[in-house]
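Quick entry between incubations.
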Amino acid sequence: MLLALLAACTTPGTPLTLTITPMAGAAPLRCGEPVDVAGRRVTLRDLRWFVHDVEVVGADGIAHPLDLTPTDWQHAGAALLDHEDACHNGTAVLHDTLEGRTYAQAPYQAVRLAVGLPPELNHADPLTLEPPLTTTSMHWGWRQGFKYVRFDFVQDDVPTRVHVGATGCEGPMGAVSTCAQRNLGSLVLPLHGTTAQLDLGPALAATTDGCMAGPGESSCDPWYEAFGVPREAL
Amino acid sequence: MTLRAAIVLQLLTACSTAPGYTWDLPEGMPAPTVPVDNPMSQAKAELGRHLFYDERLSVDGDMSCASCHQQELAFTDGRPRGIGTTGEIHPRGAMSLTNIAYVPRLTWAHPDLDRLEHQALAPLFGDDPVEMGMADHEDELILTLATDPDTVTRFQAAFPDDDSPLTVPNIVRAIATFERTLVSFDSPYDRYQAGDTDALEPAAIRGMELFMSERLECFHCHGGPTFSDALTHDKLPAAEVAFHNTGLYDVDGSGAYPAPNTGLHALTGRPEDMGRFRAPTLRNIEVTGPYMHDGSVETLDEVLDHYANGGRAGSSSPLKSEFVSGFVLSNTERSDVIAFLHSLTDRGFLTDPRFADPEVTP
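Done. Structure below.
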């Protein structure tokens, strides 16, 4: 009995690697490759985002945790997805997978993601961070945390930035108490095999504005919808 | 000597040398508060000075901290607003680093940014605006510094307990340590306060009395040893944190400041925080123009116009500090106040070789 329990603890489920592909409607969004959206040429420059609390919905319709394996891209249950390869600025390595183990049974139906970082990671003292939280371009020091989502792109010739993270936070880095806008997202993405798509097409079609997740920034609404961020009362 | 006496002596010696850094402060001036996880040391300050002047810390290799924080200008740059390594213009001006260790909340308006180690990450790695542009370049920065034996030696001396001391956190720890050494308390005003009655001209003494008067109200926000009401040091039970709206702008009749420079409001989103900025130190103010967060006031004379008018935007702003109610100054009084402000210039600080570019002054 005890042995069986121990065995269960040391081999939690089956290994599973999921791939997340960003799309603009039917067209894959790839770094530096223009796509047409609502008559505009949209070129991805940077798309990186943090996720945590990853769950996989198995064949039986039940969601099981995807226990993320600690790597340079995954730490303490959170992961950085990186869909840029320095086509503009950034890091040369593309990393669009989540690696872990799960009890969910194939064929998998969907992946559930919390978009962003849990507060204890988001507001950790930047002098004591582990990878991937050491990624400087995702740090949002003056907001006492991280950009949960960094989506930089060019529309025709206009550079546009969508940076979503917690704002209106109170307390110094390492000891933040509250944030007026938590801006954590929640997504359920259907799985085809082990691949899911993040479709940014509707948001790109709905607005030409960027977003800095500031208080009362109405241009953020389509982006909040894209990443499953609830509108919070100010 | 008994064994016990020897041990006590050894302990005493250990204690007296443990801090590794001696502050150069006038009598009675409390030492700055230093974070417990980044104690002062001469070696760390010296590494920090080298890094502060090191252009390898910018993505184009043409900019160091000192590009915007020049010693002869009390660590400002003479520009209305900062310009980053890629040419991007910062919404606000580079602030003086005079006595920066005594500042409880850093930058022009941040409710919680309380450590220089954390602040230094913003110019290095921030991308909105780009200042030194090092976001995503941290690995190559470390590799570049690691090929320089002198730099490696300085990191080892500064962080003797670290197996691999060359890290981004240690870079900002060292820069913060150097910044904390930038103390300035040796102006003619300080010498006058210390008993040298010849240190100030009569005009400056008259100006000081005006400055300290209820008529002008300057000292409410620009008071205390640093001439700023935002103050922290190791003899205070808690840091004094303060932000003020001085009526510099009122673009909508309700006190609004033009975006993105809305002060504390830009971070908190609270309507009442509109236009609230930290009162900067007035020490070395003679050399830190142009003035205000956006450099929109050219001279000290125009600064006095702003306050004499009860705020440049006029008297209507409902958010304006109660201390900015306006006053009338005669021409003589005006030049007296300016003579006093000039008496806060610490020439020694502006030329101190300990704060200078190590390439020029090793």
